[in-house]
Design brief:
Blueprint lengths: L1 H21 L3 E6 L3 E3 L3 E11 L4 E2 L8 E3 L2 E6 L3 E5 L3 E11 L4 E5 L3 E4 L2 E4 L3 E6 L24 H30 L8 E4 L3 H14 L8 H20 L8 H8 L5 H20 L5 H18 L7 E4 L5 H39 L1
Parallel strand pairs: 2-12
Antiparallel strand pairs: 1-3, 3-8, 4-10, 5-6, 6-8, 7-8, 9-12, 10-11, 13-14
Length: 360
């Protein structure tokens, strides 16, 4: 029984020791540089290992605050987590420090509060040394040199010089192409809409003009029949498609026999016969006869006219081979001008930018 009690006590003690070890807090304090020159900077590091979930309060050091007399804080960085496990957390905070006095400084442990309890690391040392100055030869000290211009280097300017020459050549070629484009005038093709008056309408308009001039009652019968037959000849030529203006009256009647009724052809033959007698045999007609021939001419036109004929015609001009070559040349020249213009603009921007960098 006593043995079991001792085993229980030992187990409890081991558990307490393990819990105590797990809950230990350690603080490490060190400086990353053993020695620095006057005005140089070093980093004072505080590394804290603590149980996970603990709260920590770092030393209240601010910029331009003295850690110890002669050592000044330049910058305070945020805390950084170095490692983390389920039970333990390791964090680090860095203070950038400097000094302007030659001395060996001893930086005392800085207090860190973890869960409201103070902890601290070890003492850190910082040695600040000065630059050796040869006071025996003051004539070897020189004042700061003035700002000097960089020496000219052809190697730096060479690519931009040749690019400028290339850009100049491109501009000259563009000028030549522009002159060629102006001298090579564009081929302008305009689609024309032509209004057509039907053949029968033109013939009836001409007959109405004859009626308005009262040639049927005029003594100048030769003029009347000449205008009337010429009107009919033009209409027949346009309507039936043969050259009635160069044919005799008999030839016209013979050609019309295949396309018209006999009564209509007989009336037309009578009209042409009367007209030939008046024009060549000095035959005199009566007024009623003139009116009858005029009516017969109108009837012939009405009987043979074609309805629903288009009154407008869309005329598209045909380009010759020379015109086509001219148009293609203009398209090619314009394309070259655009391409060369873009290349010249890119070269100009590139050269100006790099020259500005060199001069700056």
């Amino acid at each position: 029984m006593t043995k079991k009690i001792w085993q229980y006590v030992l187990t409890c003690m081991m558990l307490l020791l393990s819990l105590n070890a797990a809950s230990q807090v350690t603080v490490e304090q060190n400086v990353d540089s053993v020695g620095i020159l006057i005005g140089e900077q070093a980093h004072l590091q505080l590394t804290v290992t603590m149980p996970a979930g603990s709260t920590i309060q770092w030393p209240a050091l601010k910029e331009r605050q003295m850690v110890v007399p002669g050592v000044e804080v330049v910058k305070v960085a945020d805390a950084d987590t170095l490692s983390s496990s389920g039970k333990e957390l390791k964090v680090c905070k860095v203070y950038t420090i400097t000094s302007f006095d030659e001395h060996l400084y001893s930086i005392p442990p800085l207090p860190v509060k973890v869960n409201g309890k103070n902890y601290q690391g070890g003492v850190a040392a910082l040695k600040v040394i000065t630059v050796n100055v040869d006071t025996l030869h003051p004539n070897q000290f020189f004042p700061p040199k003035d700002v000097q211009d960089n020496p000219f280097s052809w190697a730096e300017w060479r690519p931009y010089f040749w690019l400028s020459i290339l850009m100049l050549l491109i501009v000259l070629v563009m000028g030549y192409l522009y002159i060629r484009l102006r001298s090579n005038k564009p081929v302008i093709t305009r689609i024309r809409i032509v209004k057509h008056v039907p053949a029968h309408q033109r013939a009836l308009n001409a007959i109405n003009k004859i009626k308005e001039e009262r040639l049927t009652a005029s003594e100048d019968q030769k003029t009347y029949y000449t205008q009337l037959t010429d009107t009919l000849r033009k209409y027949i030529q346009e309507r039936f498609g043969f050259n009635a203006l160069e044919m005799t009256s008999g030839e016209i009647i013979e050609r019309l026999n295949d396309s018209g009724d006999k009564k209509m052809i007989d009336e037309l033959r009578e009209l042409f016969t009367t007209a030939d007698l008046v024009k060549f045999a000095k035959y005199s007609t009566l007024i009623n006869e003139n009116d009858l021939n005029l009516v017969n001419a109108i009837n012939f036109i009405d009987e043979t006219k074609q309805e629903n004929q288009p009154t407008e015609e869309r005329i598209v001009p045909q380009l010759t081979e020379g015109d086509k070559r001219t148009r293609q040349n203009r398209i090619t020249i314009k394309s070259l001008l655009w391409a060369l213009g873009i290349i010249a603009a890119v070269c100009l921007v590139y050269v100006c930018y790099h020259v500005w960098l060199l001069l700056g």
